[in-house]
Design brief:
By secondary structure, this protein is an all-alpha fold. The chain contains 17 helices and no strands. It is found in: Membrane.
């Protein structure tokens, strides 16, 4: 694999749509997504499922569109940001993306360590969360270190195994209640529906700043778009639903403890481990790629190890009680940012880009894009605080993208 930010030649692109389906399905089958589904319990079953399905439709669409920039231009996500924001603007986006990816790495290894420790303690009376934390960080870093030729086969095996294991987890979550009782389950209403919707949208959006890192290896754009869209939609909606049902029926955000009680502790432990590895390696690898956008002379494998270590160390102190706030922060930053990027590429440029516009002819910074982004962040914060029942994701996306479009049209800077 190339270790710089130059476009991937067509002859070196080898991922099929099915490979990307498995890649993003593997990323979505994660205990972090089950936990996020549990946060929606105050909405009740019907309200929660509505938020899950609509939130994934809304979040998955720009997520998969971002993948088109990778499949058509052959460049990583943060390099594609240069089109709208300029080179220095993309450096700012890269820095923020690196921070969120290190945070995600920490969250994933914490969840793995906590869940794995609870299972091992119940099965064998053994408890060592810090040991599990370091094992999760080490294996995830190693997976990222192997690079894409290995990902295709590792993901195929891991995702097929995870699908079977998750089927057992789903059965355990649903066995507590009949369908009729499930439909009647009400939440206590402490979470506005719009805020719950934003929490769902934020999950696929958290992958948007790195989706092109993988679709740049796709053989064709159609397969890249639909493989990405459906892979994440199916698996993430499934995991959210499992978390929602578990929280409504047992008061816990995941069904793993119930699996242990039923004698399925080894299955629960396998889910924890495999789901951590298939998700966390993406965060580590893309943090390294984002840094290469700023410092292309660095060696990619060195940066992979660096961010694997940083994420694992952060896990020692990361406050998991701020998980919900972390998701909102991701939405506030990256939804308006890619509102600008996607409007620039699909509406203004109409997907017509010369390679020099990413490199030699790339301006240092595009102020219209930066100001539009900042405005979009402000709109997200305003709606989240003042109109939480409405939802902040769509208004912030439209505000940032719309303002940028208006400025570019006024200046006549259509490509």
């Amino acid at each position: 694999m190339l270790n710089d930010v130059q476009p991937i030649p067509r002859e070196q692109r080898h991922l099929l749509g099915f490979d990307l389906f498995l890649l993003w399905a593997g990323a979505a089958v994660a205990i972090s997504e089950v936990w996020a589904g549990g946060i929606l319990a105050p909405l009740g079953f019907v309200g929660g499922m509505l938020a899950i399905l609509l939130g994934h439709v809304v979040g998955n669409t720009p997520f998969a569109l971002g993948g088109i920039l990778g499949s058509e231009l052959g460049v990583p996500a943060m390099v594609s940001v240069r089109l709208a924001f300029g080179k220095w603007g993309s450096y700012l986006a890269s820095f923020l993306n690196i921070l969120q990816l290190i945070g995600w790495t920490a969250i994933m290894v914490i969840i793995c360590a906590r869940a794995g420790d609870e299972i091992l303690r119940a099965l064998f009376g053994f408890s060592s969360p810090r040991l599990l934390l370091f094992v999760a960080g080490l294996v995830s870093t190693f997976w990222a270190f192997l690079e894409t030729p290995w990902w295709k086969w590792m993901e195929r095996v891991a995702v097929i195994a995870l699908a079977g294991l998750s089927g057992v987890m789903t059965f355990v979550a649903l066995r507590q209640v009949s369908l009729g009782e499930l439909l009647r389950l009400q939440g206590e209403g402490s979470l506005p529906w719009g805020a719950g919707f934003d929490l769902v949208v934020a999950m696929p959006i958290s992958w948007l700043p790195l989706v092109a890192d993988y679709t740049r290896f796709a053989r064709n754009t159609r397969g890249a778009f639909w493989g990405t869209w459906w892979g994440y939609f199916v698996a993430s909606s499934w995991m959210y639903a499992v978390g929602l049902v578990s929280a409504l029926t047992t008061g816990r955000t995941d069904p793993l403890p119930a699996m242990v009680v039923l004698g399925l502790g080894s299955v629960a432990f396998a889910i924890v481990l495999f789901s951590t590895f298939t998700t966390t390696f993406l965060d580590i690898y893309s943090a390294a790629v984002s840094l290469l956008n700023v410092l292309p002379r660095l060696r990619q494998k060195v940066t992979v190890v660096l961010f694997g270590v940083l994420g694992t160390l952060l896990a020692l102190v990361f406050p998991m009680e701020r998980y919900e706030s972390f998701l909102f922060l991701i939405g506030a930053v990256f939804i308006p940012l890619f509102g600008v990027v996607l409007v620039d590429y699909f509406v203004i440029r109409r997907q017509k880009v010369q390679p020099e516009e990413l490199y030699d002819r790339c301006p240092p910074i595009v102020w219209e894009a930066l100001v539009s982004w900042i405005l979009g962040v402000g709109v997200y914060a305003l709606f989240l605080k003042v109109f939480p029942g409405f939802g902040a994701s769509v208004p912030s996306f439209l505000a940032a993208g719309g303002l940028y479009w208006a400025w570019r049209r006024r200046k006549g800077t259509w490509s």
